[in-house]
Amino acid sequence: MQTASWTFLLGDGALMELTINGARHHIDVEPDTPLLWVLRDDLKMTGTKYGCGLAQCGACTVLVNGNAVRSCVMPVGEVGAAEITTIEAIEQDRIGKRVVAAWVRHQVPQCGYCQSGQVMAATSLLMRTAHPTDEDIRAAMVNLCRCGTYNAIRAAIHELADTTAGKGLDSD
Amino acid sequence: MGMEEIPVNLSRRGFMLSSAGVAAGAFVLGIGVPLGRARAEGTKLRGTNVPAFLEIRPDSTVRLQSPFVEGGQGTFTAMAQIVGEELDADPATFLVENAPPGDEYVVMDNGMRITGGSMSIRNGYSAMRRLGALARQMLLQAGSRHLGVPVRELTTQPGQVVHAASGRLIAYGELAHEVMNLPVPAPESVTLRKPGQFRWIGASVPRVDVHDKSTGKVVYTIDVSVEGMLHAAVQHAPRLGMDIQSVRNEDQVRLMKGVHSTHHLPGAFAVVAERWWHAKRAAEAAQIDWKEAGTDTGMRVMPADFSTEAFRKELADIRGPGQEAETRGNVRTALQNVHTVVEATYFSQYVNHAQLEPPSALARFNPDGTLDIWVPNQAPDMFRADMARRTGLSVEKISVHSQMLGGFFGRHFLYDTASPYPQAIMLAKATGRPVKLIWSREEEFLRDTLRPMAAVQFRGGLDKNGIPVVLEAVSVTEGPTEGLNNKRGDKLDESALEGLTGKAYDIPNRRIAQHYVKSPVMLGYWRSVGNSMNDFLYETFLDELADRGGQDPYGLRLYLLRDNRRLTTLLKAVGELSGGWKRGPFTAEDGSRRARGVAMASPFGSHAAAIAEVSIKNGRVRVHDIWEAIDPGQVVNPAIVEAQVNGAVALGLSQVLLEETVYEDGEPRARNYDGYPILTLDHMARVHVKIVESGEKMGGVGEPPLPAIPPAVANAVSTLTGRRIRSMPLSRHDFSS
Fold it and tell me: Which residues contact A167 (CB under 8 A, 6 or more apart)?
């Protein structure tokens, strides 16, 4: 994770290389800029949402090397060579695709604003733990949802956990 | 669809709909008929201008302009079901969008266009069905021309016109070009389907927006961008009414990275930059001396010494008869003859909307003098009228674009100082560039409108059998509507007292009144409005009366509703759903001590009854299960009703367990979720829903399931602890002993 990618300091900005959804992007931005705003304003990838800016709500969750990270407090300069996955590419991920399908089956979203982050958090959970228990889900799914879709979220993840208990997420 | 294309599409849509007849609008139904005159002549019926609403596309998909704004409540899907039912088109083939402002989209009988009050489906139902039927008739006429057979020989099946005699089928999409030249038939010439024939109305049709919302594809206002756009952030005055005296370090702020310009706005300092992060950082870096409000601001000035704690005491100390909203019998004389008098003061607290999408607005002045503006809103025409007032432009020159809302809850009504669009307009004007202004979460907490606080003086009287025969409630409060208007109206504000008024219990002597006290904070509508607090206040006091009279709270409610078949059915339904009424306290399988509480509410034309099961662990209330029965009369989509019940339960739990907006020294203590905790997945109860479709007049769904939840929980906690709960949130109470 600390493998340095090359950067050139340009005044107080820096030219950086980021790997996002398998593609390389070169951006000129100060290293302390939160990853969230690089995604949204520089790269026009607005599927990742701003909610609080304080790592309180989780609407900005992305995957950094498969780990759920709150991009609103992640300085872009610390990303280095890590692989970033955002909601835009979630269906290209084997597990992410199944999470989305479960989200649709369970009709999880209401307003939908927090759901990019919820889907990323669920994907990260299932990448780490193929068969999460209810306690695992409670511990991992801490993103806020004002519409109160929590039971649908829990049901969708349980279904994936059960599916995987029978067939295994890795089986296809 | 690439994100960068979206504004182009959006503006083209506005262009298509406002200048029908150009090539770009080739698929707009009824093209060549100028909008506003396409309405069937001779009718004043609302929602009959088919071409304004519907576009049949060559691929047979149907594009619908929804008069109601989608914000998670599922109205787009319900609209597709209702229109699709009569149009004979599968709701899954619909692409639904928020309609622009305009008279043709006013379908509600009251002549307004507002998404709120849980009114969309019940008030739009007839018009939207008729709209679908009119469009189907136009397709039949187009099919008749296409096939050279009389209309009477044609029928439809989903997405197709059918000529049974010859076995020929025409997809709707094939008629897209013909159908657009036809006049809209007279509304009385079409007949609607019989309810027994419904395929989609009444079915749990999948939501039309769920996949997009699960993959980040929905474009909310905060996501919109247009060419040449600048970003803006503000620092608001800490108290409403204050203005900038001076910005001590403005020169340095201007030199900060990425800053385009700085601006002094009424009550706010703004920074415009190429990136929002730069704008936000610079706006926050500004060291501003604020001056106190003048005496002639016309706005609700926040006093420097305002504290919610002191205000709560002030409200509680006020006595008086108040202004009557509802009376029956004679409270004064009846109280002299009762066996027991019970008096108590109950409280509601201020609460924030705390929707996840922070407010934003994008304003663009165009070279031809028109203004495009993207703003979260639940009343496009009211917003446009306000923009016209602020800019001096005529409404025809203003295009309001309404994206899906990242949370509804009443946050996006027209609140004078709680929306960023006036600032965005000023900044776009000042810079000569399109400007998107986002309020940071901290600025949002500073300017959000709040659900009112109330102190209610209750008096109840019990007869010798312990049955309530008198109930008086005097609410010391200001209603959200009088708050919005910043003055009292000629009549009482119903939104102040709903939930104290309108209770169905057969208590022969009752009196509900309001003692008006102006609130120093800006008030707003919060999901289920007055009911969000008043049913808590009433239903918990009713349990206090039941306890004083030695009555079981469930049994007492059944008794007081003995002549009301609909509510008796509902209360019994929730009892059965919970496995039979069981008050407790009892010991659960896991060894925890638990109790159940019951409450009812009849808001927004629907009825709800809820039972909550609670325990206390480490001094903290846990809600294990909520059983809720809801009777909205008639149902368009049971799955959406169930989802709305779940959402309303979550917000009701959040309110009763956790939420309270606290002001000290004129400022809100919480400026982000860290200081204003809301319900998380870990606190969410299991929810069991029973829909009771009585067949009565259709009521609302989005708000009605909420108000019964807080009192059901509080009543359960009272039973469990033996302590009366007379205020929210429960986190304020100490249950550790």
Answer: none
